[in-house]
Amino acid sequence: MSYLNIIILFSLIIYGLNGSENSQSIEAINYTKKQDCSKITFRESSKNSKTKDSATQDEIKDYEFPYYHNLDTANSFIKRFSLHNENYFLPIYYQSTAPSPYKKYEIKLQFSAKANIFQNISWGLGAFFAYTQKSFFQIYSPKLSSPFRNNDYIPELIIYKTLDTPFLGGKLYNIRFGFKHISNGEENVTISRGVDLILAEIMYKIENFRLKLKAWAYIRKDPKNIDKYLGYSDLILEYDFLSRNNLKLTISNLFHNYAKYKGNVLLEYKFNLENFAIYAQYFYGYGDNIFEYNFKKNGIGIGIAIATF
Fold it and tell me: Is the whole model's pTM more than 0.90, yes or no?
């Protein structure tokens, strides 16, 4: 880029940051060149420039932090979003083993939300888009530049149907069918991991107990043997007790040869406060993240999560 282009670009940036001052300077130049412009005209023009610039600044503020004068508009937007999987932050997550050169302790966190596309259009049908991201942050390894050593990216597109079907003293309350992608986002073939799944899920509850059974088929899998570890199904058992307590057990790779089991078990506990919860988890088995799909370990951590009642 030539010096002239740099000067022009820099001038445009300054102009954008100081619109009113530049506007006045341009008006002053025009005033000098055109003696028939009166001082009154100049001042009025400058005043109009300031008013225009103020309006622009208001628009920027509204864009950055929108204020909804109509609360129905705000509510219609906000209510489309809700939690999906668990949202947690573990400042200390300790693992029995860790790949070299990483430390055994790190931060583990997960964000998960879903956005409603439509609901109850007919026969109780609805659809949503969900996104989950799980990260492992080596913040206690400053000599390695404290990297995020692994991220799992998990988008989903789900069609669901609400149910109210009596079953075994409780009821089936939801069924889902959709597409799910899991990957670590790497392009290098030696470290890239990813699967595309068609999945189905059915949900059952009785009093404070909930059961979710998931099953899936592979559209694509990389590497080819990853299904031996991720399996074809999950079983989730969840129980609420003593008002604020929640216990959840997830068994992955449910239908498997248990003599040579290659799945995992995740045990989670939450004590719900107002908006947040004290949260702890214990992991055992393979695939704490998709990159480590064939890596067996124990992991335990404690931190906070978003409260759910």
Answer: no
